[in-house]
Amino acid sequence: MNSVYSSWSNIFIAHVKRDILTNSRSLIDMISIVGFMILIIILFPLGLGPIQEKLNIVSNAVIWVGLILAIMPSLEKLLQKDFENGWLDQIATSPIPLEIVMLSKGISYWLFILIPLIITSPIFAILLDMDLKNIPWLVISISAGSLAISLIGLSGSALILGARRGNILLPILIIPLMTPILIFGVGVNEAININESPYGNLFLLLALTLVYLVISPFISALLVRIAIGR
Amino acid sequence: MLYLKDLTIQRGNKIVFSNFNAVIRSGYTTLIKGKNGSGKSTLLRAIAGFTPLEKGTIKQDKKDIFENNEEWVENLIFLDTKNGLSKDLTVAENLNAWLTMKGWSSNKEIIKMALKSVGMEKYAELYISQCSEGLKKRAALSRLYISFINKVDFWILDEPTNELDTASLVLFKKLVFNFLEQKGTIIIASHDQTIIEKNFYTLDLDELKNQRVS
């Protein structure tokens, strides 16, 4: 039994490695996510006008909304590329269950967006004049929340496989699912702002992330099976 | 032996197969023939376990391939007109990713030998985005060589020779010959009836379907 599990983990890691390698070759996706977020974060204060208090109220939410909007274009390509070049057919012949393969896809996408986000979110926080004591909590909540967002995105990406105009459909379908993540993610820093404990919101955020960690691979695998069965 | 029993397969609203029966013999090449749109690819995808059946069963000896799917696909190499190569990776990286995804060991030596078997050793570091269609097909066919290192029982190939030149066709035939030598089973859908020379029989979809109707 032991050897079975070790080979499962090896295959899992092989899937993650391959996805990270492919993603690292098309860095334009990573740049576009960060670039899009920078645009939102620059435009927002300009739109708000010169009163600083206004900015303090919304800065936290702007980063989260910016994140959700910025990853939309890359989400639609998450599985689409592999569907078109036939890799999804090949991974259906992998000896590990498709659910585990989908989990590896979610994790590798998370690692791919997480690195630029962790580096840039403190800079965004300073740009938006956030209090310095909020920054570590922002990084923690974004790290956890982005995993949930990646997993929801993965299911959404599987849902639009082979659909025409999927890029328009995708945000409409998955942004509603992301609202709880947004609420609790923003809540972590809101609690700090009113000198309350942030743990309540953070734990709810983590709980939601765990829920998606369990259900998203199953939903995605089911949808991928339908897509390759057509 | 692979028993296809009472297969009914639907694609969209169109019924491609209804109550279709066939047997795929082990240790032989089954050449699937049929005009365009007769369902060659659909049948191959069903045998690989991708396309769900409306009705009927596909059994390998006694085991249903849909119920024991992971066991079935483990010793199977599936290759269709989409090659499953990422254009962002090189030829060697693609093969390495495929090997590790299948849970097989991979090292430089194995990759070198596999690429050599299809005459691709010079192109190992070439990105797929820079490859011609013929080179892509050869890069995908290099996976077949792995059957001689690991346990592989089945090849399911959809139009494997369309883009190949004469020299690579010879190499492909050599791979097929060696695989049949070690009692492997091959299912090929192709218009070109000359690619296999011995140990083969044809399955004409047009004929078989007409028999059902009459």
In words, what does this structure look like?
The complex is a heterodimer of chains A (230) and B (214). With 230 residues, chain A is mainly α. Chain A has one domain. Chain A has eight helices and no strands. The radius of gyration of chain A is 19 Å and the shape is elongated. The relative contact order of chain A is 0.14. In chain B, the strands form two sheets. A five-stranded parallel β-sheet of chain B has the order 6-7-8-3-9, sandwiched between helices. In chain B, strands 2-1-4-5 form a four-stranded antiparallel β-sheet. In chain B, a hairpin with a 2-residue loop joins strand 4 and strand 5. The two termini of chain B are 27 Å apart. The mean pLDDT of chain B is 87. The interface between A and B is medium-sized, with 30 and 30 residues.
Helix and strand arrangement:
The complex is a heterodimer of chains A (230) and B (214).
Chain A: H1 2-25, H2 28-48, H3 52-84, H4 87-91, H5 98-127, H6 135-159, H7 166-193, H8 199-229
Helix pairs in contact in A: 1-5, 2-3, 2-5, 3-5, 3-6, 3-7, 5-6, 5-8, 6-7, 6-8, 7-8
Chain B: E1 2-11, E2 14-24, E3 29-33, H1 40-47, E4 55-60, E5 63-64, H2 69-74, E6 76-79, H3 91-101, H4 108-117, H5 133-141, E7 154-158, H6 166-181, E8 185-189, E9 200-204, H7 205-213
Parallel strand pairs in B: 3-8, 3-9, 6-7, 7-8
Antiparallel strand pairs in B: 1-2, 1-4, 4-5
Provide the descriptors you would attach to this structure in a database record:
heterodimer, A: 230 residues, mainly alpha, 8 helices, 86% helix, elongated, B: 214 residues, alpha/beta, five-stranded parallel beta sheet, four-stranded antiparallel beta sheet, 9 strands, 32% helix
How is this structure best summarized?
With 230 residues, chain A is mainly α. Chain A has helices spanning 2-25, 28-48, 52-84, 87-91, 98-127, 135-159, 166-193, 199-229.
